[in-house]
C-alpha cells in the first residue's frame, strides 16, 4: 500500500494537476483490492489537513486553494473560530454565523480563508474578515441534550451546550411523549443552514428539568461519558474501600 508521505509529496508538488481518487489510484498503480483502503487513506489525510477535496472531488494542497481544515469552536453569541488541525498553523480563523453553512460546534470543517488573510495584506483580522465554511468532514453532534419547549406555532429543543446557540426544531410527530420543560435527547435529522435551524427527532425523554437524576443523565449524555461499564471493571471496584482512612485525610 502507498504511504501517506508519497501521496502528500505528489499532491503538494509544484507540477501536480488536481486529480480525483480514481485518477490518483491509477497514478500510484493501486490494485483494485486495495482501492477502498486507498480512499480511506485520502480521507484520513484530509481530516489531518494535509490535503483537501474541491470541485469534481479532486484533491489539492489546501494552501494553494486558499482552504484550511480545522475544528469549529462556536461561541454562544453565534460566531466561531476554526482551529487548524495541522501543527505549525497558529492563526485561528474567525467565522461569522452567516458563513457557517451547516456546520455546528466541534465539527471538523473545511474553511475558505478570508481575503485579508489570503492576501496577507493585514496582520490583524478585521471584524468583517470572516472565513466561509465550505464543507463538513466529520460531524460532532449526531444528538444533543436540551430542554423541550412548546410554543403556539412550533416545538423545539434548546440545547444545554451554550456553544449550540440555535434551537433544534421538532415536529409534533417527532416529539413522542415529551412535555414542555422535559429534558430530552434529540437526534439531528436535518442540519442547519444559513436561514433555517436544524431539525430533529426526540429519541429519549430523560425526565423533568431540575431533578437530580435527570441532571446527572444530561451531563453524561452531553459530555459523552460512559453510562455502563464492563463486568471486569465493575468487579475491580468491589475491592475499593467505602471510606477514607485517617492517614489519607492527613
From TrEMBL:
Transmembrane segments: none annotated. SUPFAM superfamilies: Nucleic acid-binding proteins. InterPro entries: CSD2, NA-bd_OB-fold, RNase_B_OB_dom, RNR_Ribonuclease. Coiled coil: none annotated. GO terms for biological process: mRNA catabolic process. It holds the Pfam family CSD2. GO terms for cellular component: cytosol. Residues 156-229 form the RNase II/RNase R cold shock domain. Keywords: Exonuclease, Hydrolase, Nuclease. Signal peptide: none annotated. Residues 70-120 form the Ribonuclease B N-terminal OB domain. GO terms for molecular function: exonuclease activity. This is Uncharacterized protein. It comes from marine sediment metagenome.
Amino acid at each position: 500500500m502507498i504511504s501517506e508521505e508519497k501521496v502528500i509529496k505528489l499532491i503538494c508538488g509544484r507540477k501536480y494537476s488536481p486529480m480525483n481518487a480514481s485518477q490518483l489510484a491509477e497514478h500510484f498503480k493501486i490494485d483494485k483490492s486495495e482501492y477502498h483502503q486507498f480512499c480511506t487513506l485520502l480521507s484520513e489525510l484530509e481530516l489531518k489537513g494535509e490535503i483537501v477535496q474541491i470541485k469534481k472531488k479532486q484533491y489539492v494542497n489546501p494552501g494553494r486553494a486558499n482552504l484550511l481544515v480545522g475544528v469549529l469552536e462556536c461561541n454562544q453569541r453565534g460566531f466561531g473560530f476554526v482551529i487548524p488541525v495541522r501543527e505549525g498553523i497558529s492563526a485561528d480563523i474567525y467565522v461569522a454565523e452567516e458563513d457557517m453553512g451547516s456546520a455546528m460546534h466541534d465539527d471538523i470543517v473545511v474553511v475558505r480563508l478570508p481575503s485579508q488573510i489570503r492576501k496577507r495584506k493585514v496582520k490583524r483580522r478585521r471584524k468583517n474578515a470572516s472565513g466561509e465554511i465550505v464543507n463538513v468532514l466529520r460531524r460532532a453532534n449526531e444528538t444533543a441534550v436540551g430542554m423541550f419547549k412548546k410554543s403556539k406555532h412550533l416545538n423545539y429543543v434548546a440545547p444545554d451546550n451554550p456553544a449550540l446557540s440555535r434551537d433544534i426544531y421538532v415536529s409534533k410527530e417527532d416529539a413522542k411523549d415529551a412535555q414542555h420543560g422535559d429534558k430530552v435527547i434529540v437526534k439531528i435529522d436535518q442540519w442547519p443552514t444559513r436561514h433555517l435551524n436544524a431539525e430533529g427527532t426526540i429519541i429519549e425523554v430523560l425526565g423533568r428539568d431540575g431533578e437530580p437524576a435527570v441532571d446527572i443523565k444530561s451531563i453524561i449524555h452531553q459530555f459523552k461519558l460512559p453510562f455502563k461499564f464492563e463486568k471486569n471493571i465493575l468487579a475491580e471496584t468491589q475491592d475499593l474501600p467505602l471510606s477514607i482512612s485517617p492517614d489519607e485525610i492527613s
